[in-house]
Amino acid sequence: MASQALCVCACVCITALINSVSAERSFTIDYSKDCFLKDGQYFRYVSGSVHYSRVPRFYWKDRLMKMYMGGLNAIQVYVPWNFHEPVQGMYSFEGDRDLEHFLHLANETGLLVILRPGPYICAEWEMGGLPAWLLHNPNIILRSADSEYMQAVGDWLAVLLTKMRPWLYQNGGNIISLQVENEYGSYFACDHNYMRSLRLLFRNFLGEDVVLFTTDGNRDKELACGSLQGLYSTIDFGTDTNISDAFLRQRRFEPKGPLVNSEFYTGWLDHWGDDHTTVDTQKVSKMLRDMMSMGANVNMYMFEGGTNFGYWNGADHDTRFRPVVTSYDYDAPLSEAGDPTDKLLAIRDVIKDFRDVPVGPMPPATPKMAYGFVMLQKIGNVSGLLDMLSPQGPLKSLKPLTFEEIKQYYGYVLYRTQLPRDIPDQTPLISPLNGIHDRAYVSVNGVYQGVMERDIALVINVTGREGDQLDLLVENMGRVNFGSKINDYKGILGNLILGNDVLSDWLIFPLDIDGVIANGWLQSGWRADGKEVGDVGPSFYSGTLKPNGVSRDTFIKLTGWTKGQVFINGVNVGRFWPERGPQHTLYVPASLISATLINNITVLELERAVYHRRVVFTDRPQLDNMAV
Ligand SMILES: CCCC/N=C1\SC[C@@H]2[C@H](O)[C@H](O)[C@@H](O)CN12
User: Fold this and answer.
1) Of 181, 254, 263, 607, which residue is the catalytic one?
2) What is the mean pLDDT of residues 267-284?
């Protein structure tokens, strides 16, 4: 009897404990008081966007500490689907992809989390976060109730949301709300069944008591297509918008509940070839003060922008294809390298008038090192290294195949055919359907001819003899991340015409450049077969940065080089394009620089190397129009 009594007593205590915990932990909307409630008490979030996928794991804590000391009580985080499921059915959550570790660091720093798992996220990220393997079916309708798309979405959310459920605030974690889709009202499909399917999936995996919301531009049409019953409608706007007008529009869709600006733009993105965009600090701080005075909840987009490492940048396509630069500095309160700016200090001065900001100094900028010059040597032309870069050999096809058709999604593919006849005079090589996606570096018998570029250079003149080898190295510059063109196939779309001939009988080489360089096979000392031609055309260069006993953030500057990719100790740190700008340096985090071992620097130069083949490691970034 006694043991039964003890058992009953224990059950009662455990139930009481769970009830007391669950009773204490709740995050809800109070529609009578037009606010959020955390544990039943009034709560207003002052949040900042930071993307773990754009900051090396090594620096996550550093950035989060600076955001906390900046006066924030929450962060807003995108989850890029393609970052975690690069191949369908294969998931990665380790290292720089360890989302749960990032949540843990935020939790221990005292930051709540507003999670935005999409599945589409925009974010100037490759294909808006959607995995390119979705494009295997050319008829798929992305961001719709399309059955094939929804099957893939369901599989992905089953993995992700199952992981996220324990992290919900009411379950003991720090996730206070989740966004469903992203500015869906801006997308042509306006498919409410799609949004209903997503709402059902989120509820199935997360339960009924979590706050789910949507974010849309503050226009009626956008809110009409992007909002859905059961998902709290929020809006986004920057310093060029009238606050009262914007929130009046939110009120049309949410007559009661908290005012929320889910993306208050503290800066803006940059495209290659445009000026670096900045947003005035005084405008940002004044508008933040006005919104906080209204009791609004605000997330500042971005608070820490970070970097589009590797091939992760997205692109816009309004009048033409406009790829986003490698730096996602965004003129944000924390710079790309995580340095506090005057804008952050001004924002903190505003916040401290509305909530207690942590006492103590703002963590300082991380130390930077100007490691100086490094001489590079030419390793070889891409076309001379195919045995190594494409060990499985080429695919053969009458017509060119896309990246997606050959199941290579990022980087570069080499397309090879032969001249069908003698062409003694300059003859136009044409992509009649504007089908070069996105840039092709053209060579005849290894002699570089020039560039074809999507929307810009659809024709290039070549000469040669019948049977000469015609090579086009095609670069994926990043898939469109916003609007109706996100189903952005890459490679050579459609046939190419040379004079009156349709070119056929293609050899198509998938290139594993990143794998080869990560394995250290393209380092200084290694030479190609010696048939190298000059310093023009797609080529690899390599050199070494000797250790100096310290490992510091630095910036590599490639003055006089044209365009390409940089690898530091085998890690792809992103695209450079000083010929076009506005970015003229690439951020190299200290975590990539060895203090004791030789550092290997490898550069893929796509067009023309600078004659002296030098690069320099400096202690500051250079973005045109940026005070450095
Ligand atoms: C006029 C086009 C508006 C597109 N929306 C943008 S551009 C910068 C930001 C990020 O992409 C963000 O991921 C979007 O939700 C909103 N936004």
Assistant:
1) 263
2) 97
Separation of CA 122 and ligand 1 centre (Å)? 6
Rounded distance between C-alpha atoms, residue 281 and residue 521, angstroms: 47
pTM of the model: 0.95
Mean pLDDT of the chain: 94
- Three-class SS of residue 216? strand
Q: Which of 183, 222, 304, 607 is catalytic?
A: 183
Please give the C-alpha separations between residue 530 and each of 381, 539, 540, in angstroms, as whole numbers.
10, 13, 13
**Chain-centre distance of CA 404, in angstroms?**
20
Distances (CA, A) of 24 to 169, 194, 207, 225: 10, 35, 18, 36
* Residues whose beta carbon lies within 6 Å of some atom of ligand 1: 122-124, 182-183, 236, 263, 269, 482
Residue 269 CA: nearest ligand 1 atom is: 8
CA of 283 to the centre of ligand 1 (A): 19
- pLDDT for 384 beyond 50: yes
Q: Which pLDDT score, from 0 to 100, does residue 1 have?
A: 45
Ligand 1 mean position to 104 CA, how many Å? 28
Q: Please name the amino acid found at residue 580.
A: R
SS3 374: strand
Answer yes or no: is pLDDT of 604 > 80. yes
Which atom of ligand 1 sits closest to the CA of residue 236? 16
Q: How many CB atoms lie within 10 A of CB 277?
A: 18
Q: What is the pLDDT of residue 315?
A: 98
Tokens of 574: 């992103």
Nearest atom, ligand 1, residue 123 CA? 13
Q: What is the pLDDT of residues 201-242, one digit of tens each?
A: 999 999 999 999 999 998 999 999 999 999 999 999 999 999
* Reported ipTM: 0.99
Please give the Cα distance from 155 to 23 (Å, whole number).
Answer: 32
The CA-based angle 203-204-210, given to 5 degrees, is 30
Distance 298 CA to ligand 1 centre (A): 16
Respond yes or no: is residue 183 known to be catalytic: yes
